[in-house]
Amino acid sequence: MPLHFRDQTQMTMAKIKHNNFLDTVNEVITDAAKQGVLHLYAEGENFTGRTIGVGGNELYHFGTTGYLGLEQDPRLKSAAIAAIQKYGTQFPLSKSYISHPLYNALEEKIGHMYGQPIIITKNSTLGHLGAIPSAVDDRDAVILDHQVHWSVQNACKLLKNRSIPVDMVRHNHLDMLEDKIKYHSRKRNRIWYMADGIYSMYGDSAPLHELMTLSEKYSQLHFYIDDVHGMSWAGRRGTGFVMDQLKELPDNMLLFGTLSKTFGASGAVLVCPDKKMHHRIRTFGGPLTFSAQLEPASVAAASASAGIHLSPEIYSLQNELKERIQYFNGLLSKTDLPLVDKNISPVFYIGTGMPKTGYNFVNRLMEEGFYVNLGLFPAVPVKNTGVRITISRHNQREEIAALVEAMAHHYPKALEETGTDPGRVRQAFAMAVPKTGAKVVPGDLDIRLENSITKVGKEMWNNLMGAHGVMDWDGLLFLENSFQGNDLKEHNWEFRYLIIRNGKGKPILATFMTVGLWKDDMLAKESISKTLEQTRKYDSYHLTSRALSLGSLFTEGNHLYLDRKHPLKDRALNILMWTLETLGHKMGAKMTVLRDFGPDEELGKFFKDQGFVRFQMPNSCAVHLTGRMDVETYFSRLSVRNRRHFRKEILAFEPEFQVDILASCHREQLQQLIALYGNVHRNNLGLNTFSFPQRVFEAMSDNPHWEFILLSLKSSPQTPIGAMFCYKNRGKTYVPAFVGLDYTYVTSHYTYRQLLYQTIKRAIALGFYGIDFGLTASFEKRKLGAEVNERFAYVQASDNYVLELLGTM
Q1: What is the pLDDT of residue 223?
Q2: How far apart are CA 599 and CA 762, in angstroms?
Q3: What is the DSSP letter of 647?
Q4: What are residue 351's DSSP bridge partners?
């Protein structure tokens, strides 16, 4: 894509809008709320746990995290009520000064449960914020499982202020973890691996025994495990899944449990076998010191629950839940429902793939009388949307069976109604795909997928896609010749051309796609890219992935032709989606990117429903040269302020420049221009891409559709200090695709502004109808009369690993 820059007092490189992630999450959650599956309010004057009131209906409740149902136990309720009567609704003092009278008994009971020193915290989020910065020393390192709970990841951000390395590995990827341990062991004291005991979405678990074996191999390895979803329903005295698996808590582990969720009360518990560390965290643990303590009712309810955990009754409760889990697993095994991970936890996840399928399925189940949760981005990758079902002691066998029956009936209907099938869903979750899965039924459509523009009619392509950018037939032939057969893998792209016509040969949809190696931080903050580029000095392909994109990294503009009025356009769009999925899977792409769309609500909704998330890109700029105007007429249309800038910063300096328009360059000139381009590329980490091979520039010099605008000072005419690499699109659109600069003169001579001006002059002299000024630098280009338009990309990644890893940096 054309990479230019914008102006501040000093010229700096272009940056994209990096509130993208929060904006994207807001859009996803807002869409789900509009579909009636999130941000709901429970209704009714009482609550039993077995049912929940939603939208005027009583639904069987399959979304609770109170797996043992203790939140409805009369003993906990009575204890909470009595505590309020005796001590009030709260005890408004810091626990550092004094704890209210019920705290001591609770701490003794919880300590007895674990047989280890413990700390009670207000909740697990505040507990992590207090414990992690206290436990992790400046000489330590942290490695996160990329699916560890957000609250753990968030607490680790505090460590960056102390220059403690926070790394990340793919979920349960022990080989990758060992590589990270080896790397950090040379420089760091302890290496903390942070993970969940039971993961909240899929219900899968950490490989605890394998981790213990790894710690025997590496004595520096310590563990910080969040087991809040494993609490109470497993383990001796209900101490959780981790304790159930390990039996004894190792000295090199900190364990978090919860007094909320299954425990039935409020608060969380940190178990810390290291007495010295226990004292340090308890004495001054940040939020543990300054946050309010648990309310008397919560402490009393937790104490009553701890009494149940310390009695034989806890095992009866666990067994009742276990029977329900086994019953549910057995019923699911007789269906074709795609259970993402079969395990012994009370958490189940049925994959739907696309968000709109998830919305449809959840709403169907609610209409049948069942409340379930939707798993949605960012908790899961956007194309791994699914229905999260939890089993509790509240659920009876008859309603469990009825839920499975309803799911088996409505799941295929939800798939059909939202234009997908089991094969696409299973492929999204890397599950075995049925032999009959994932087929496209073209009906009366003619679908052509070609691997070269030479197999596509020139006139037809130019009529559909050739009006702008380097996207006409000749421009794409230039790209094919330039980005194939190169030495480095990042310089070799695979091209595909999709044309969909109706039965009479009328085009409905056309686009071209490329697959190539991208830097994973292409749209990340500049500071992150700077850090990663240091690593890439000795590991060139660190954090890079194959990406499938509409268009290419060389082109900018509308990469999709769509006849919006055609009655078969929706079918054509679905075929495009299927084609992208198939190509991405076949070519090993980890990410699919749909680029350079305007604020198009209709297409945007379609893409988001198909499992893409929207990110805002730099603005696109274009100049319209209507009426074959001359230069004076063009600039007379600028505002008074912009004309003043134009005279002062451009016209005043023009006499100092020698301006050359070259159709081709000799070898020495070309090397000079490549060096100028390299200056800009190295400084433009706001859109971090691989540089282009020399072969591209050599091909420009040999191609009649390209020319170069060179700026040099008249005092040194043989040394260019600025250049535009310009493509002439079919005599209609002038495309200054790339810029090269000597930064010595950018501020003193306003070199970039002079290049923009000379580009406009050249396009007018050639009689072109417009200029595609590319992405970014909108402030500069607007001052010279360019129209600025918002642009968006829609991204679908195979998982959230890279997104979350970059979030730790």
Answers
A1: 97
A2: 31
A3: I
A4: 386
| Residue 92 pLDDT level (bands cut at 50, 70, 90) | confident
In angstroms, the CA 399 to CA 59 distance is 10
φ, ψ of residue 636 in degrees (nearest 5): -70, -20
Residue count (the chain): 809
What are the tokens at 396?
Answer: 């009876």
Pair of tokens at residue 616: 């805002």
Nearest Cα neighbor of 642 from 743, 737, 756, 772 is 756
Best CA proximity match to 478, nearest among 547, 554, 549, 548: 554
Q: DSSP class of residue 329?
A: H
Reduce the DSSP state of residue 217 to 3 states and report it: helix
Task: Inform me whether the pLDDT recorded for 458 exceeds 80.
Answer: yes
What are the distances in angstroms from CA 541 to CA 442, 490, 520, 545?
Answer: 40, 9, 10, 8
Residue 302 pLDDT exceeds 70: yes
Domains of the chain (ranges, CATH numbers) = 35-67+314-428 (3.90.1150.10), 72-311 (3.40.640.10), 446-616+797-807 (3.40.630.30), 621-793 (3.40.630.30)
3-state SS string over 533-602?
A: HHHHCCCCCCCEEEEEEECCCCCCCCCEEECCCCCCHHHHHHHHHHHHHHHHHHCCCCEEEEEEECCCHH
CA atoms within 13 A on the CB side of 185: 14
700: which residues sit within 8 A by CB, 6+ positions away? 706, 708, 725
Task: Tell me what the mean pLDDT of segment 361-366 comes to.
Answer: 96
Q: List, for residues 316-350, the tens digit of each pLDDT value.
A: 999 999 999 999 999 999 999 999 999 999 999 99
More reliable by pLDDT, 443 or 302: 302
H/E run at residue 509: strand 507-519
Q: Which three-class secondary structure state does DSSP give residue 556?
A: coil
Task: Please give the Cα distance from 585 to 723 (Å, whole number).
Answer: 40
User: How does the average pLDDT of the chain come out, rounded?
Assistant: 89
